[in-house]
Specification:
Elements (H helix, E strand, L loop, with lengths): L5 E9 L3 E7 L5 E8 L4 H15 L3 E8 L3 H8 L6 H12 L5 E5 L4 E5 L7 E5 L7 H10 L4 H8 L13 H13 L4 H20 L9 E4 L1 H5 L1 H11 L6 E2 L7 H13 L2
Helix pairs in contact: 3-10, 4-6, 4-7, 5-7, 7-9
């Protein structure tokens, strides 16, 4: 008698710089997760990760949903269901973090803030018009200073003073940072000033009269991997740092949400 194949729900988030994958079992427990920079070789990394999953979970069936700024094209080519990143992240909030009131999501090329109120639809604010206030801006500034992101974060946590840096335009920001460096401003101050301007840009663009009420969940690669950036957001939001929560799988939220939604898509 043939044994029925186990079904696993798989969410894939293909962003501007990374591919994130979450695989859930029938109990919605995470059995596989992967976070890799694709360095523009999206197809290669995508294929490698799917091969690894098939080896890890042989004789299984997969319900797959995809999201991300670079995910729609893949979804169309492979005829995989697609959903928008914020919709996927909200699914995680609904299922795993129902007490959250604010979601702050910083990606490589966009920023999002979502406000939750009982009995109301989530209020979604998005900014994808420029790199200011996003992870790409931080990458550009780190490259300018010949720092890794880890270097920038470690120095920023030692800052004493914040200086203004333009974030609306990469050219102006570069000029501002170069000016600070030429004046021999301490490197920790320069690094934190860069992160502070990212927080200011994201908050001022997206809040527009709303208040970030705790619990505030921080998700996305930059907020996950740069603690000094979370500190900058806490300062700009005028909240104590402990009220900005880094949830489990914070860098995987859209992929996680896709995995949860995949079950519904195929019902």
């Amino acid at each position: 008698m043939m044994q029925s194949k186990k079904i696993f729900k798989t969410g894939i988030d293909v962003g501007s710089t990374t591919v994130k994958i979450i695989v859930l079992n029938e109990k919605n427990e995470v059995v596989f997760r992967s976070y890799k920079r694709h360095k523009t070789d999206i197809s290669g990394v995508f294929a490698e990760e799917l091969t690894e999953i098939s080896i890890l979970l042989p004789n299984a069936e997969f319900l797959i949903m995809i999201t991300g700024s670079a995910g729609m094209g893949i979804a169309e080519r492979l005829q995989i269901p697609f959903t928008q990143e914020v919709v996927a992240s909200i699914e995680v909030i609904k299922n795993i973090y129902p007490d959250a009131h604010t979601l702050v999501d910083l990606g490589g090329e966009d920023a999002k803030i979502v406000f939750f109120e009982e009995g109301k639809h989530p209020d979604i604010r998005m900014n994808g018009s420029c790199a200011g206030g996003t992870g790409a801006f931080i990458d550009q500034m780190a490259d300018l200073m010949n720092f890794t992101i880890d270097n920038l974060n470690e120095l920023a946590l030692k800052y004493k003073k914040i200086y203004p840096v333009a974030s609306r335009c990469g050219v102006f920001a570069r000029t501002d940072v170069q000016n600070l460096l030429s004046r021999n401003i301490p490197l920790p101050d320069v690094c934190m000033s860069i992160l502070q301007t990212v927080a200011i840009q994201a908050v001022t663009t997206l809040m527009r009269g709303r208040e970030a009420k705790p619990q505030v969940l921080c998700i996305g690669g930059p907020l996950t991997f740069i603690p000094a950036l979370r500190k900058a957001f806490a300062d700009v939001l005028k909240l104590p740092e402990y009220q900005l929560i880094l949830p489990e799988n914070s860098e995987y939220f859209p992929a996680w949400g896709c995995a949860l939604l995949a079950d519904k898509e195929f019902q």
